[in-house]
Amino acid sequence: MTAPRRTRGTADDLDEREVDLGRWRRALVALWWIPIAGLVLGAILGVLFSFRGGTVYKATALISLGQPTSPGGALVNGFGTNPRAVSQIVSSAAGQAQAANRADMRPGALRGHVSVAQVGTATGAGATRATPLISLTVTGAKPLNTTAAANALADIVVTKTTAAYVGVKIRTFRATLKSVNSQLESINRRLAVLTAATKAARNLNPLDQLVIVSQEDNAEARLGNLIAQQETLQQQLAFATQVESAKIIIPARAVKASAHSRRSSLLVGALIGLILGAIVAIVVDARSPRTA
What we know:
Among the domains are: 19-51 and 261-287, no CATH class; 55-166 and 245-250, Alpha-Beta Plaits (2-Layer Sandwich). Helices cover 65% and strands 11% of the residues. It contains 8 helices and 5 strands. The protein has helices at 2-30, 33-52, 83-91, 93-102, 143-161, 164-200, 206-244, 262-287, and strands spanning 55-64, 114-119, 133-140, 247-250, 254-258. The longest helix has 39 residues, at 206-244. The radius of gyration is 38 Å and the shape is rod-shaped. Residues 1-6 have low confidence and may be disordered.
């Protein structure tokens, strides 16, 4: 006895749904101008909303974290090689306050306007030797201040992530290279004197000529050793400054970016307006008096 009732009830529900869908369809056809008006009005409001946020500027700096190595050439892992350290540095209150001060911005102006992302994350066996690249982005309303703040934060990151061990190596290489350059200048002056003495020694006895030539040969050998030492130091210094030290690859420069995408705002506004217009048309049709 219950099964036929359930079947009859289901059929009645389907009929009611078909009637409702048919009524809605007729309402949308009869009052088509209401959804169209909603679509147009929604598109207009969406475009107006896109202008509401004003203009936002974005400045992005590309930073390469250093890869310190031991004297044997093995990688030395530490705080400065961890990309997460950059996020902690730029999000800290002290770091943002320092950058804001250098960019002539009020304290706290950078809160919520700084983002960090790792570029080109390596996977597999090469991940352990890949140099992390960090993209640091600052957004703001003024292009000059935004650029200054991004570059200030990048400088802070470079300073804090470059290991003190690398700084000692760089200072040592520079001091040694300065000494080698000074010795090269001295040996070149001595060679010039010995060369002039060799030319003038034709009238001297053979023993004196042999002494001058021997001194000239020793000076030339010393010059060769110093040049080789200079080349090695220059390579070591370049490696320490370009690879082991963190550095800014591309400085930040502000570019204009709309707070809201005008196209997206138009499409979303038009869709919302169309849906609301369709609902209004159905409600108006349902409340209108009907003739038998």
